[in-house]
Each structure stands twice: as structure tokens, then as C-alpha cells.
Amino acid sequence: MPALRPLHLAAEIGGPPRYDAAHHTGLARLAEGGALDFVTLGDSFARPGPDALAVLARVAPATRRVGLVPTVTTTHTEPFHVSSAVATLDWVSRGRAGWHVGVSTTEAEARLFGRRPAASAPDLWREAGECADVSARLWDSWEDDAEIRSTATGRFIDRDKLHHIDFEGAAFSVRGPAIVPRPPQGHPVVVIDGTAEPARDAAARHADVVLVRATTPERTAALRDDVRRRAAAHGRDPDALRVFAALTVDLGDAETAFEPGLATGPPPPDRGTYFRGGPVDLADLITEWHRAGAVDGFHLTPITPARDLERIVNGTVALLQHRSLFRTFYPGGTLREHLGLARPANRYARVGERV
Hints:
Blueprint lengths: L7 E5 L8 H13 L4 E4 L10 H8 L7 E7 L5 H14 L5 E5 L4 H7 L7 H20 L6 E4 L4 E3 L9 E2 L4 E2 L14 E5 L3 H10 L2 E4 L4 H17 L8 E9 L23 E3 L2 H13 L5 E6 L2 H18 L12 H5 L16
Parallel strand pairs: 1-2, 1-13, 2-3, 3-4, 4-9, 9-10, 10-11, 11-12, 11-13
Antiparallel strand pairs: 5-6, 7-8
């Protein structure tokens, strides 16, 4: 039997809008105590509440290891600003940042900006893919040693190590270079939900972590294989992708047995694939799916974050660690190291000088 690949775990720490930093910091620290790869914080233009990226920038100095992945909407926003904001989060967190790429689909959200009407899903995800491409190019527009910081010569930057990206796309053009130095990870981790067809090609082209939603390990494995095939067709190494099963979990009644098909009732609106049961049941499901080779990891969205995340970490994760299926400590300091992903080479650095 082939050796199992390392199991990866992540969790959402959002919920009803909260305006106290201590709430999100406490949840991120709880996840860190369980050695989870990263936490996400959902966001959209349709919901009230503080900006997810700004919240996690506040959480960053209060945590040490856990990855921080806010949702960042690419529709109605400028890719140059998106790139700068995500790079800044990577600096603030010392290499623990990612971003969950989102799109804005409704006319109500479009009216908030007044620039254009809502577009179709294929157009939105084509634009989102271009934004991810531009962001990566902007992160590479500074070579790693572009900063000189020499008081003796009065030179701050080696201008030969800054690069114009000169990107021309269907939705925008960006010249560059960036205004933020290359992030500690080179490229912060890109997360895309690739369940729906319009998003899947963007995920195969640009994502490091792809989320998929399915009710059986067989269907999940089929989605994973499809994403990997598409990535290879785009010239990417499919082994450089991590595919996570995305589950919404309700651990409110620890005595409720999990039923086949994941759900004991209809999932709440917009909740995706839904699991209801106890922490042990969830550990059994994760064990079964992982041992079947269906996924590389799981992204868990608690129905009630404060209650369910505690049960995930102290119940489900503890049991997976006892079964030697999940680590008990972080293998490194950056999110890429947690995920077993290499730091990308800079596309603009001369061969032989790349870091």
C-alpha cells in the first residue's frame, strides 16, 4: 500500500459580524494550538462587517505559526491594490499569508461601485484569473535582493532589480513594478474554490490550494483528478497543488451519529456540503477519505465558530494526532512550509541568480 501523503487541515473563523479583534485572535490562536495549516476569514461586498484582510493583519502579530487567509474579492477592485494588500499581509505575518480569491456576482454589489453591471460567472473568473496572474508578476517585480539600504552610498534600491511587468489582459493593463518588496514567501498562497465549472479552470491555472465540495470520497477524488489534469495541461506540476474537501460542520450535539451522505438534514442555505455529528464521527470521516486518497486535506467551516472550532481542535484533531494521521507541531514558519510547497523562483531574475 503506498504511503499516505501528509494530511492538511484548515478552518474558517468567520460567522456573524464581529468588531472586536480579540474574538478573531482567540479563534486563530485556538487553531494554532491544534497545528492547523491555516485559518480563513470569509468576506464579500454583500455582507456587513470589517474587511477580512485588515482583520487578519491585526491577528498576525498575535499569532506565530498558523496561516492567515482572508477572502479578497477581485471584482470591482484594482489588481495592483489587491497585490499590494496581500503582500503586506505576508510581511506583517512573516510569511504566513494567503488569499482566498472571490468574485462579486450580483447587481446589488455592482451598484455599490457604480462602475459597471454584474458580469457572468465565466467572465468574472476569467478576470479573477488575470488578477491572480498579475499579482504573481507584481510580487516578482522586485527581486529578493533589490533593497540595498546603504547609508554610505545613499542607495535604497538597485533599480536593475526592479521590473516592469507590462501586463495586458481583457479587463485591465498593469505596468508595475510593485510598491511593496517581494513577499517573504515569494508568492503568498492562492486558495480558490474550484467546485463550480467557471472557477475550476482558474483554480487549475493559478491556485496552490483548491477547495472542492462533494458528498462522497469517490466524487471528491474525481474532482481532484480533474483539477490535477487541468493543471498539467496548463504546464503546471499537479503535485504542487493541494486539494481540500470543503465541509460545513455542525458539532453541536456530540452524541449525534454521522449518517452516510454527510448530512442528517438539508444543508442551510449557501452552506455547501454539510456534516452534522460529533468530533469522533468527523475524525472517522476525515480518516476514511484521506486513507482512500480522495483529498490532500480538509477545510472545515464551523456552524458556530467558537463552539465547534474548540471541538474540532480538542476532539477531532486530537484524535487524528493520536492516530498519527496529523502532525503535532508545525514543520516550519511559513504557510508554504506547512503545506509542503516550494518557494517560487522569481521569473524576472537572471538564471543563476534566482532565489
